[in-house]
């Protein structure tokens, strides 16, 4: 029995920062403290759409994020199924990657810096300057990049917090957007693009399973001795 207690205590200790960050985020989810982070997660969501469009040969026309945590990314060309999935699944992938690379500090710093730089540059390029989302995207991305450059400790703290927030916001999106009314979200848009609106639910479920699986594997990797 004492061995099991020690193993449990050791496991909790390895997850201590993730547990603390999760508890703080959930407890203050609807507070003014967490709200800017939630908006920034939406910006990252839109950046994932934009990145997918560019990678698959498309063109980005505009990225926008609104005060009510909605947003849109207008694109031309590219692989539409990949672009559609990139917002929800891409955010979960980035969150899982920031957590997973916690066992490889230098790689974690690189991932954090890449996310910060991509968010900053894409916001500057595709978001109309002067609105709230343009400033939040630019300075939020710059903050991530600065934390990654500053030190390993600062990078780890930022990566852990933003990894947790990306994963939590993905789960929040899955519940409110995909589970409750997927026909009005990216899953519904993709289903209508294929001419089969009824596919919104299976598409949403597939995205949820992929994302949750990646988050689970990332957390398991952190817990390995």
Tell me roughly what share of residues is in helical segments.
over 70%
Helical/strand content category: mainly alpha
Sheet-strand content, in percent, reads 5-15%
Report the major sheet.
2 strands, antiparallel
The largest sheet has its strands arranged as 1-2
Output the radius of gyration: 18 Å
Number of helices: 9
**N-to-C series of helices and strands:** HHHEEHHHHHH
* Average of the residue pLDDT scores: 89
Description:
- With 225 residues, the protein is mainly α.
- The chain has one domain (2-223).
- The chain is 75% helix and 6% strand.
- It is built from 9 helices and 2 strands.
- It has a two-stranded antiparallel ribbon with strand order 1-2.
- Strand 1 and strand 2 form a beta hairpin.
- Helix 2 (16-27) crosses helix 7 (152-179) and helix 4 (80-100) packs parallel to helix 9 (200-223).
- It is globular.
């Amino acid at each position: 029995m004492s061995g099991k207690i020690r193993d449990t205590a050791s496991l909790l200790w390895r997850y201590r920062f993730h547990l603390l960050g999760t508890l703080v985020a959930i407890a203050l989810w609807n507070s003014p403290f967490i709200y800017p982070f939630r908006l920034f997660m939406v910006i990252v969501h839109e950046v994932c759409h934009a990145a997918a469009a560019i990678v698959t040969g498309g063109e980005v026309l505009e990225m926008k994020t609104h005060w009510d945590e909605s947003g849109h990314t207008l694109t031309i060309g590219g692989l539409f199924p990949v672009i559609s999935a990139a917002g929800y699944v891409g955010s979960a992938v980035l969150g899982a990657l920031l957590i997973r690379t916690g066992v490889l500090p230098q790689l974690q710093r690189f991932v954090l810096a890449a996310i910060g730089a991509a968010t900053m540059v894409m916001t500057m390029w595709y978001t109309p300057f002067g609105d709230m989302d343009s400033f939040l995207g630019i300075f939020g991305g710059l903050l991530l990049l600065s934390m990654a450059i500053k030190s390993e400790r600062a990078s780890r703290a930022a990566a852990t917090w933003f990894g947790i927030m990306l994963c939590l916001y993905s789960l929040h999106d899955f519940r409110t957007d995909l589970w409750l009314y997927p026909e009005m979200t990216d899953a519904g848009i993709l289903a209508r693009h294929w001419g089969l609106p009824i596919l919104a639910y299976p598409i949403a479920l597939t995205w949820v399973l992929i994302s949750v699986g990646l988050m689970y594997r990332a957390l398991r990797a952190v817990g390995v001795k």
